[in-house]
Each structure stands twice: as C-alpha cells, then as structure tokens.
Amino acid sequence: MNMNRRRFLAATATTAAALTQGCGSPAAAPARTASSGPWTIENVRAEFPRAVAQVYLDAAAHIPLSRIAEAGAQRYMDFHMHGPGEGRGEYAREAIQGARTLFAEMINAKPSEIAFVSSTKHGENIVLNGLKVQERGGNVVTNDLHYAGSVHHYIGRQKAGMDVRIVKHKNWMIDLNDMKKAIDKKTKFVAITLVSNVNGWVEDAKSICEIAHANGAYVYADIIQAVASVPVDVKALGLDFAACSNYKWLAGVRGAAYLYVREELQGNVVQDVDFPGYVRYNYEPWVSAADPGKGAFPYEPPKNASRYEPGNVNYIGYAAQYESLKMFKDLGIDRIWAHSKTLCDRLKKELPGLGYTMITPPDAQSALVVVQAKDLKASMAKLKQANIQVTEAGENRIRISPAFYNNMSDIDKLLAAMA
Hints:
The chain is of the alpha/beta class. It has 2 domains: 5-65 and 332-418, CATH 3.90.1150.10; 93-327, CATH 3.40.640.10. 36% of the residues lie in helices and 12% in strands. The protein is built from 14 helices and 13 strands. Helix 4 runs antiparallel to helix 11.
C-alpha cells in the first residue's frame, strides 16, 4: 500500500524520541477534579482505574470511564440537583458549548458544522436520509471494511429498493480502483470508515473524495476509530460528512456523538429530516398583536448543523466529553498517536513470531493491531487468565488496540500471555 499519510492525517509523525516517551509505568497519582491538569502521557494513566487494575488493550471497543469524564458528568448533574449557584449553571452552559467547540477544533471544522446526535450510525443515517438518494434515483457505494452495522443497514436499504454497491476487500485492503469502478455519475453517496474497526485499515479518503466529487457524489466517513487516536483533518481530506460516538477513543460515554456536515451543504444538499426548535404562534391570544409580515406559524429552523439534532440529547454525556476533550488538548493528538504507534509497532514485529497471522496492513498508521489465531479459544483463555482485555473479533481474529493510558509493560504482559 503506497500511503501518503497527509491524505488522511492532519499532521506528520513526531520525532523518534517522542515515540519512546511515556512507556514506563507511572507512579500512582491522586485523583484529580474536572478542572485539574495539565495532563500528560505520564500522569493520565492513574485517572483510568480499570486500565490500572487490568491490562486494558481494547480502546477500539470502549475506553474505560475515567475520573476526568466522571467529574464532568458529576458537575453537570450537580447543576440539576442543586441549582445554578456556585458556578454550576455557568459550568453546564460552558461544557455543552465547549464540547462542540473543542471537537470541531480537533477535526479542523467549525463549531457551526457540528451537530449532537446519539450515535455514529445515527449521524450517517441523518445524512443518507437528507440526501434523498433513493428518491433521486441514485446509488450508494460502500465497502466491506466499513462498519458492519452500517453495511447491514445498507443491505436492508438494498432490499427496500435502493441501489447499493458493496466493494469487497482484497487481502484485507480496499483496492482504490475497485472503488473507482463502483462510483459512477448516478452515485450520490459514498460511505467509508476512515480507520476500519475490522483490522485498522486506513482508507485513502482524499483520493476517494476526489473520485466521488468528480462524479457529483458526496463522501461520508465514520471516524470513530480515528478521532483522538490519530490526527484527523476533515478539510484536508475533502470529506463532506463525518460522524463518531464518544465512548471509544474520545474517552466519553455511550449515547452521545458528533455529526460533521460541511457548511455549504447544510439545509440544501442535506435536507432537514428532523425539525428542532419551537414555533412562535403569531395570532391572538398567543400574542397581543400579530406581526403582519409573518404567517400564523412562523418557521425559523436553525441556521447551522444543529438543524440536524433530534431535540434533547445526552447533555450529561457531553459534559463528561468536555473534560475528556480538555484532557486531549493537553496531551496533544500527535503525542497520543506517536505513543500508541510505538506500542503497535512492537506488536506487529513480535506477534507473527508467536504464530499469529497479521491482517493489519504493515504500514497502516492506525492504533489497531488485528491478528488471526490458530486456536482462538485457547488464546483468549490465556488472555483472560492473565487479566488482559482485548476483542475477540470474529471467527479467528483478535483485535488489540492500545491507547494513551497503556505502556510497554502492558505489551510485555500481552506478548507473554499470547506466547
């Protein structure tokens, strides 16, 4: 795979020296509050109790709840429990707006391009429905390294009459030429996963966007395995839409997610499917004097991506996410990426020698390592006995996903258990 990392990552790799930092076991640290910091690779591990109690190498499935996120959620709940005094009301407003702003900054978007939704798949479906693909006689192109829940959804759409084209991988990689053949002038929507949860494959998203845009199509990327794991720049990639939930690499909770919709596509290309807001009745007795320049039921939809929000969302979850996002700002995504990469590089080097077949492309720049085991049941039993958490990812696959709170000692323990 000839990969130009600028095609999917916003920044270049940090220096080799940075790759070796933060691999030792940090000393125990006292719990911090939501306002603590600055966070570093060395001191943040203690804030993830489960990652200290066991070898937790499963960020691609779910990052353990941290004391940092817990503190944000608690401060928001305190506002509703005790009222707005002592800064609680100010924090509630700050956290919700701050989560939107910091996430937008993380992917190089504007806050006005970010909507709050319930899940990654929910965001994808909002865009798909808003594009009116089937009604316009268009087709959808995706591939089998896209998120399995989304592929299942497209198969359902296919059975309901939509023209859906699913490109199959070759040796666990997607051939760009196969995507190019599937995309034509009737293609309205191309759906990919930027970093595949299947094996850490990284899509050449920039090239896919160029192909799609040349045919008049729009591109959506599931970025749940990318954001806060590797640097992501939606503008540099040319993405039209993207979505991700908060409970994986973003160190948040379930039920809260983000949807990115490029500014110039809002309300026209992607039509409204939900209609948030409140009507103002313009007639008596609702008002003492009706505005003659407006109808009885003035309709004023939001002018930004919040127009795609379903109404009330998981505000407690976004308060938790706000604190995690501040943590990521301290840590730096380049630093996180470099730290995880050195752990993954060791796994890629040593696991084949232990009898495991690597299905993660050797030059993949993600933080996922997936191998095929000769005896999956026996390998998983060894890992369980050693108190090591990974994902059993299919018929014979094991997925390992080290995060910023992991260290080389965790990798030592995993390799010993898998020997």
